[in-house]
Structures are given as C-alpha cells and as structure tokens.
Specification:
It is a single chain. This protein is mainly alpha-helical. The chain has two domains: about 40-135, Cytochrome Bc1 Complex, Chain D, domain 2, CATH 1.10.760.10; about 150-240, Cytochrome Bc1 Complex, Chain D, domain 2, CATH 1.10.760. The chain is about 55% helix and about 0% strand. It contains eleven helices and no strands. It has helices spanning about 1-25, 30-35, 60-75, 95-110, 115-120, 125-135, 150-160, 170-175, 195-205, 215-225, 230-240. The termini are far apart.
Amino acid sequence: MRRTMLLVAVAGMLAAAAGMQIHAQSPAHSPAAHESAAQPPAAQTAAAPAATTESPAGKPDLERAQKTASEVCLACHGPGGNSVVPTNPSLAGQPAEYISLQLAHFKAGVRVNPIMQGIASTLQPEDMKALGIYYSQQQPKPQAAKDAALVAAGQKIFRGGDMANGTPACSACHLPTGAGVAKNYPRVGGQHAEYTYAQLKAFKSGERGADKAGKDANGMIMATIAQRLSDAQMKALAEYMSGLR
C-alpha cells in the first residue's frame, strides 16, 4: 500500500513538472511570435502596418487603428474613410463586423485584390476588429445622385425588387436607408455609384462571390442575385444607392 501511494505521488509530481515546462515553452504570447507575422509584398512594405496585438487591457487598440487608417488606408479610402476616388469604396459608417470580415477574406484569399491582400496579410484578427470599429464610428459624407431617370428606375428595384426575374428588394438586407446590418450586409447608402456598379458586375461575372469552399455565404447570395440583373438595372441601382442617406 505504501509503495502504491508513493508511486501515485511521484506520478503527480512528474505531471505537474511537465505542465510547467509546456507552459514555459509556449510561444503564444512571446514577442518572437508577433515578430514572425507575415510581411507584405515588397511594393507594400513601406505602407503596410506591422502586425500588432490587443491593448494591455485586452480591448481592440483603437489608437493603433486610427494610426493605421491615417498612414496606410488614407491613400485609397480618404480622410475618415470617406473616399474621394469614385472607384475606391468609402468605409465611414460601415458596420464594424463587415469591415473586419472583409479584411479576413482578403487575407485568406476569399476576396482577391493585390493591394488589399498585401495589407491584410500583415494584420492579426484584433487589428481587423479594431479597424472595423474605428471606421464604423466615422461619419459618412453624403453623396448626391446625378441621373434622375436612373434614380427612379433604381428606386423601384431597391424597394420592391423585380418580380419578373426574381430579384428581391435590396432594402430587405441593406435596410431602406442603405445602412447595412452587422457583418453580413454592408452600407450601400452614400457609396460611390462607380464602385457599387463595379462590385455588382464582379458578382455577376463570378469575380466575386464564387467561393466554392463556402467561406463567403453572403457573397454567394449576391452573386446569385446579380445574375438576374441587367447592366441597365445595375447602373440604376448604383446611382440610386449613391444618394441614400
């Protein structure tokens, strides 16, 4: 009996020692683990932010996100996320989770864009979350639609869909104001018409949303819907949504 108790005690000590050794060797929180983050392509090295972790309090580092936005994202997405280039999207007021999800999709190659993939490759999940929160808190600048005829045609589809070809109302997912919902549905109100039209064409051609692995379920839904839209309808929707506020 004494021998058995002695063996049990020794086994317990060995297990405890092994656990301490494993904990001591774990690299999860070591500086080296963060320094080994993937670096962007050479063309993006000067502009891309270094990988970072959450703030000491365990919350997304919004100061870091603001710095990244002003030093890296500003060139394409404008001050405060309000793009001044019609072919680049405005990010101000986008749902936070949608932005962080799209960054994750760029990093994973679900969405393909050389510039965005290079930048996203340097970001950790907490960086993406912080950037999403930062841009969601920025005030979007209203746009003005330019073509009254296109606006009238786009309004009908956005609000009521097109029963003839089975297109659902866009407002069902993007809300009547085009504000979007959570991570699944982006803000389309006030977005540049040129950018929106380009994305609808990308969905229709399969350039976007053709994710066979099922990692972009909502992208696949949009690809299906875009198949039903004519080029004229896509232009009308893009024009109408640009004026929503």
